[in-house]
Structure formats: structure tokens, C-alpha cells
Amino acid sequence: MPLGDTLMAIVLRNTLRLLLKPALSPRWPLRWQRRWLDILSGIGRLPRGIARRDGIEAGVAVERWEERAAVARPAGTLLFLHGGAYCVGSPRTHRALAAWLARATGMPVVVPDYRLAPEHPFPAALEDALAVYDALSAQGPVLLAGDSAGGGLALALALQLRERGRTSPIGLVLLSPWVDLRAARQPPPVPGEAMLTTAWMQACAAHYSAGAVDDPRVSPLLADLRGLPPVLVQCGTDELLCVQARALHAALQAAEVDSTLEVAEGRWHVYQLHAGQLPSADAAVARIAAFAARCQGRSAP
């Protein structure tokens, strides 16, 4: 691993452990956690030439990231569902990642501000994601992506589209997806985890699931996964959800879905958020772009 990547990883990991991990705790009000995440999001580095436009899709506020210049773009949109355990997070907290994805893929990236628990428990987030997806798919192909809880939400959305006979996304990109919210399935602590704790995840799962934690729309690892489009799963070895990413990949393969699993050695939960700062995050985003191009090629008439 390049020395620059190693040194930057040390800095970023320690920053997360100092400033973020203590804040993501059941001890603190969610309102305060959300505000703190918004403040920390300002440390991300945005790429040049990418502009943000705020808008509304199907009644849901969204942020849209795309090239400033009028250039030839691949057909379609990348719909990105942000993480935050269904209780925190917003398009603002994921601005850097969304902007770098727009630059790497050449696709407009749309990030919905879906409703959060406990004020709006399941199925509010899924309903918002479905509404935005329908609006975007009417305009062209959609690549569906998400990180952490957003990854689980993206998978649940793809399954709902299949069940309802709607147009399928051309592919799924799931970053450290949280796909099983059952308390007994939350993994034990991982020494290198720089962001998550089991206690916080269990508290947020209870807020969101509203007692429906066994519902495949809440814990999509429990669903019949057959018939899904190609899937790219990325995670790091040093995170709680690596075990769920591996389990999902195995389940997708058993369901005969075209699934690719990439496990980054020595990386933490959703390390891709540090694109523009961490070379290994840039490399992961580049692989997402290559996957997107492959999915677009498959969807072309």
C-alpha cells in the first residue's frame, strides 16, 4: 500500500475515532447527532467542475450533482441513498462522495433527503426512495446505490421494484450495507472500527423498524434475492458490517445474481466517504465507475 495512503488513513481513522464515533451513541439526542454530522461534513473535499443543484423529485427534497460544463454524459442517473442508520445523515453529510461519484461516472448523482426515524419510522424511508426512483426512471436508466443503512435501503427498494413489476435499476452499488437489523445479528466489536458501535446500531434499528425488524423490507438479507440486476458490494476489513457484506454476497451468489464483493484491507466503515483525500477511497470510486459503465453497456439497446 502506498505510503501516502497509509499515512492519510492513520490521520482519518484517528479523526473519526476522536470526533465522530463518540457522538454516535444512544447517550446523545438524535437531534444533536444530526447537527454534529452536518458540521463534520464540511471537512470533505469536493472535486472541481462539479455543481450542486437543489430540487424536488416526487415531493422529496434532493441534491443533484453533475458536471458544470455541457458535456456528453452517459444515459441515466445514479440514485444514491445516504447512510446514517435511518436516524441521522442527509444529502449534506454525503456531499463529497456524491460529487466524486458524479465526476468518476459522468452521471448525474441524485441524493434524496428521505424521512428519518424515529419521527418517521418504517416504511417512510422506503416510500420516499420509491417515489424518487419512479420519477428518475421515467427519465431514463437508474443505477441504484447507497452506503450503510442507505445500502440496505437500496437493496430493499430493488426488491420492491421487482415485486411490483416496475422497471429495474441497471445495477446496485452497496457500500458497507446494513442488511440485517435484527439485534441478535448485530456483529461484535471490531478493533479497527472507527465509526460504529453495536449499541448505537441496535438503538437506531429499534427506532426505524417499529417492531418489523423481521420484515424483508427492513432486513433485506432475509428476502428472496433472485432476479436482481448486477450488484457491486464494497466494504473494509476493519468494520462491524464487513460480516454482513460477506453474508449478502454469498446470498446473492446462491440466488444466481451477478455479484462482486470487494473487501479493502485495513479500511473502516464507508471509507469511500474520504474520496478526494484518501487514495484507496479514490480507487474504490474508480471501480464503482467501471461497474457503472458495465451496467450501462448491458442496458443499452
Secondary-structure blueprint of this entry?
Blueprint lengths: L2 H17 L10 H11 L9 E8 L2 E8 L9 E5 L13 H11 L3 E4 L11 H14 L4 E6 L1 H15 L7 E5 L22 H12 L21 E6 L5 H13 L4 E6 L14 H21 L2
Parallel strand pairs: 3-4, 3-5, 5-6, 6-7, 7-8
Antiparallel strand pairs: 1-2, 2-4
Helix pairs in contact: 3-8, 4-5
Report on this structure:
The radius of gyration is 18 Å and the shape is globular. The N and C termini lie far apart (41 Å). The protein is built from eight helices and eight strands. The chain has 301 residues and is of the alpha/beta class. An eight-stranded mixed beta sheet has the order 1-2-4-3-5-6-7-8, with helices on both faces.
Short description:
With 301 residues, the chain is of the alpha/beta class.
